[in-house]
Amino acid sequence: MSGRFCLSSLILFAVLVFEFPVFGQDVPLPPPPPPPVPAEAPRIGRGYGNGSGYGNGSSRSSRQQLPGAKIKGRLVYEDNGAPIRFTEIGFTNSETAYYGGSLEKVRTDENGEFIYPNLPPGRYVPVVFNEGILNPDAFRAENRPSDPTAYKTAIEQNFQLINVAGPGEMDLVIAARRGATISGRATYFDGESASGVTVKLIEAGDSNIPAALLLGTGRGMPSIFTTKTDDLGVYRFSGLPAGTYFVVVTEPVEHYVGGRSMRWGIAGTESDFSTYYPNAKSMSEADSVDVFYGSSVEGINVSLPNRALYDVSGKVVRKDNGQELKNFRVTFTKVLEEEQKEKGKSSSEPQKILNKVLNTISSLGRDYYGDEIDSNWEIRSLPPGKYLLKADQVQPQRYDDSGKRIESDEPKLPSVTKEIEITSSDITGLTIEVPVGATFKGTIVGEDGRPAIGNGTVVVTNLKTEEKAEVRFFRSSNENSRRSSTGDNASTSTSFDFGALAPGEYRIDVVSQQVFLVGSSSGQKSIDANSFEIKDGDVHDNVRLVVSGAMGRINGKISGAASSQRMGIMAVRSDVESDIVSAMFEGRAAAGNVKADGTFEMKVRPGEYRVFVVDIGSAGNNVFSSLETISEHLSDGLLVSVGPNEAKTVNLQAPMD
Q1: Which of 67, 407, 438, 579 has the fewest CB atoms within 10 Å, i.e. is most exposed?
Q2: Is residue 284 within 8 Å of 345, Cβ to Cβ?
């Protein structure tokens, strides 16, 4: 979040006139008196009750053993020096705040003054519990940074730092900064108040979600602040970091009987039921809101459109005999129109990416915690459009009196899909037919024929539908270190079982940082891993996947990166034309973090790659422009060929900031 926090001239003036400590600089410790000050209990006991807040890095017993400083302080507003009365304040250790913990607090008096009896040695950031005051947790929002260093940097750049070296007394003036405020009202198309709807603020500068997901760099998600509207449709956010935000309102529509909701888009920020300020369908069409510290932006009103919604219902049956099937869960995803695919930035683009993610885990979720599902299903409140329905077999978990799980005796059947189009009416009596499917199971072995050592995922991809099923595997050279896994999609050895696969043409691969696929067979017959046909009723119960551990490495260094740039490194197989999402899931692309000194290291399977640098902070206001940015590099990335057990070193230049 560096590069987006600046003080206004008014705030700078206040800092100079009132001689408040400058944020980001240490407050020196005065010389301690000879006798140590005994530890005392603060007036307000342990306090930050949600369990996700701050920690001072030491337990109560350690504080008694290590007496700290007695803080005699005065809490004032940074902009005008006025006292902040009857407000709780605590101190979080800047080194450990990211990891959470409890926080002891005291309360200011009528003059804003307080005494904190014993603050152990360490480096601290004051935390003020007052509505509208900037708080370290604002830099965490709903999504903690994946890198604790990023969080630490953010709070040290924006808060007063206090160094406590040991026992003594410290007289401090704590200048609390007012955060930004955004408020407005959500209304329906007829002007009525939209009460109880969810309102989210999404940071524009950190909205490069796909790049962060692919690269595993930075926080992985933008900070999202969430609230709900009141009975008048009014919402208000306060205590915000300075920056640029998008406001999105999402109506609480439930599509499944029993209240199982459908997450339409990544982080729930894009859907047919989300409207961006002022009345846009997508982030790319929305207006952003700029705020700075102490500012209050009002009138950010969102108008929700009139929607025509329809229901779809039917039953699930066996294709060969028409028998109604229980315990099949029917879900949906929206199908993109051709013009939307061409446009690439439509409101449905997030769903396209989410669908790919969902397709990679189609074998997950076999365990179902709930009642038995009958053959009839219903999906409610869908707007007009094309949808892909998917029926997945689930296994309700049942236990005997001793707590042992009762395994289902139902035959395993494959997942199936069916495309529908809703125009102007409900769809009823729709039948989803499930084939018998094909058995596909076996083992993963090394080139010596022995069970392979390593971990990863076996992925089978339907070449027509692009649906993927996966089974994780793990086997250590130390038998005592095997990890325990649960669920039909996990294995504690190198065996795998996909249950039943629908008929079709498939590709099979092993995705791992330790091994790669070099051969495959079913029984005594070799099979082409890039394209093999499965027919209904086939039995492939002795599949052998041969893997090698002779991974290659690509090492190097990136030069010319600005301190504010967040860099990622990607290596994409030269035969990949554009679909980086699928390439990542299929092991045909690799990504890595770039260290502070610009160096990086990646393990890759042998082959020819295009290697390039991605500035994951350059997406601007379009949350999905990163995919286009990455695709542009496919043609001009540095070609690198890596052989088995070979290491290649490359030097790359950072993109212009």
Answers
A1: 407
A2: yes
Instruction: Give Cα 177 distance to the centre of its chain.
Output: 29
Chain center to CA of 441: 32
Which pair of structure tokens corresponds to residue 629?
């940015």
Confidence tier at 579 by pLDDT (50, 70, 90) = low
The continuous run of DSSP H or E covering 592 comes out as strand 589-593
CA-nearest of 193, 196, 225 to 303 is 193
Q: At residue 271, what are phi and psi to the nearest 5 degrees?
A: -170, 170
Residue 239 neighbours by CB distance under 10 Å? 19
CA 200 to CA 564: how far, in whole Å? Answer: 26
As given in the structure block, the two tokens for residue 539 are 């039995």
Which phi and psi (to 5°) does residue 379 adopt? Answer: -120, 130
Q: What is the pTM of this model?
A: 0.65
Tell me the C-alpha distance between 236 and 510, whole Å.
Answer: 49
Closest CA to 490 of 474, 507, 476, 477: 474
CB 609 within 8 A of CB 554: yes
Q: Which amino acid is at 142?
A: E
- What Cα–Cα distance (Å) separates residue 83 from each residue in 7, 134, 306, 632? 21, 16, 48, 54
Cross-sheet strand order for the sheet of 385-393: 328-334, 385-393, 416-422
Statement: residue 17 has pLDDT above 50: no
Listed in order, strand segments (DSSP E) in 308-447 are 310-318, 328-334, 367-368, 376-382, 385-393, 395-396, 398-399, 405-406, 416-422, 427-434, 439-446
CA–CA gap between residue 227 and residue 197 (Å, rounded): 9
For Cα atoms 376, 378, 383, give the angle at the middle one, nearest 5 degrees: 155
What burial class does residue 73 get, using C-beta atoms within 10 Å of its C-beta: 0-12 exposed, 13-18 middle, 19+ buried? Answer: buried
Q: How do strand 552-559 and strand 647-653 relate by DSSP bridges? A: parallel
The CA distance from 185 to 56, in Å, is 39
Cα separation, 196 vs 157, whole angstroms = 36
Residue range 397-419, pLDDT digits in tens: 677 788 787 776 777 889 888 99
